[in-house]
Write a structure and sequence with these properties.
Length: 79
């Protein structure tokens, strides 16, 4: 199980601030979230960055630590 936290546009697209998901990799998590929340979130996820326990996570097929917190961060605008 991982804890997923959504920010900004990802939160709006998922229509929730957080949820728990049983998953093993980031690639699997993205697939499950897309199935669960639909095409609106799918579009947002294509441009998101992900933090796992506060660290940028780029390897989509690497195993996620059990109980990890995954932050879903869409691009931010502003200065």
């Amino acid at each position: 199980m991982v804890n997923v936290r959504y920010f900004a546009g990802a939160r709006a697209a998922a229509d929730t601030a957080a949820e728990q998901v049983a998953t093993t990799t980031l690639a699997e998590l993205v697939r499950q979230l897309t199935e669960r929340h639909g095409p609106r979130l799918e579009r947002v996820l294509t441009v998101c960055s992900f933090l796992v326990d506060g660290v940028a996570w780029h390897e989509r097929d690497a195993p996620l630590p059990a109980g990890a917190t995954v932050d879903v961060l869409p691009p931010f605008a502003g200065g």
